[in-house]
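This week, look over our next protein:
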Amino acid sequence: MAAFLLGTALVVAETPASSIAGPRVDTDVTAAPPAQPQPTFPIRAAFYYPWYPEAWRQNGISPFTDNHPSAGFYDSTDDALRDGHLRALGYARFAAGIYSWWGQGSKEDTRLPAMLARTRATGSPVRWAVYHEREGNGPDPSVAQLASDLDYIRARYAPDPAYLKVGGKPVIFAYADAADGCGMVDRWRRANEPAHDFYVVLKVFDGYRTCSAQPESWHQYAPSLRADRQPSFSFSISPGFDLTGPEPGRLRRDLPAFRAAVRQMVASGEPWQLVTTFNEWGENSATESAQEWSSPSGFGQYLDALHDGGR
C-alpha cells in the first residue's frame, strides 16, 4: 500500500529466449517464448509496487526505507529490473503480481504495459492484476468513475495474455479504507454489471460477510499481521511492517516466524494465497532480496522461504 495502513485487521488466530529449428536461412531464427497458461487455484500472489525511483523519497526522507535492496535504489522503468523481478517472482512460486494502480494516466498506469510486455517476451508464467488503490485513498469513487476505470482496464490490459484471469474473467483487486462498508460492495457491483464482467476481489472490512451484494472474493491487506485468514477466500502473510520514519514498528522481522506462516498459508488451501509485499520498501514489508537478508540463491531469505514452502 502507500505509506499508510488503513482498515480493520482480522487475525489468523481468529478467525483464522531461445533459438528454434526451421528452414535454413542466412541468419538465426529466434522465436518469442510460448505463451504460458493462466494459473488455477490456489493462486499465490504478491502485492507489487512500480513507483520507483519517485517513492525512494517521501516525507523529506531519502531513501525512504530502513533497508538496502540488493538491486539498489532502482528505477521501476528499467527493463533489466523488470526481468529480474519476474525471475524473482517465479523463483518464489508466485503465479501473479497485484500491481499498484493509481488511475488512468498515473505513473503506475503508464508503466504497466512495459511489465506486461516483458512478461510475454521472457515467457514468465507470472500474471498481473491491477490493484485499484483510489478506492481506499481519498473520496470514494462513484459508480461512473469505477465503470470508466473498468472500461479502460478491459480495453487496455485485459486482452493481454499476461493479464490475470479467473474463469475467463480479468481480475481486479481493490483497496479499502476504514470507513468503507457494504456501500463499497454495491458501488463495485453496479459498476461491474452487466457490461464489464471482472473477477473482483475487495478488501475486507468489519461485517463484510453480511453484505447483501458480494464480490467474487475478498482479501486482507494488513502487513502488521504475520498471518491472516479469511476462510474460503484468502490467506495473507507478511515478513514485517515498520513504516520508515519515527512511527514505531508494528511487526518485527522474524524469519522462522515467516517460514511458519508460509507453511500455514500453503496448508490452508485457500484460493488466494497472498504475500504483503514483494517490494513495498517504505513500509519495510518487502520480501524482495535486501542486503539485510541476502542468501546464496541471490533471491534472499524470504523468497527462499516461499520457494521451499517454508521448510
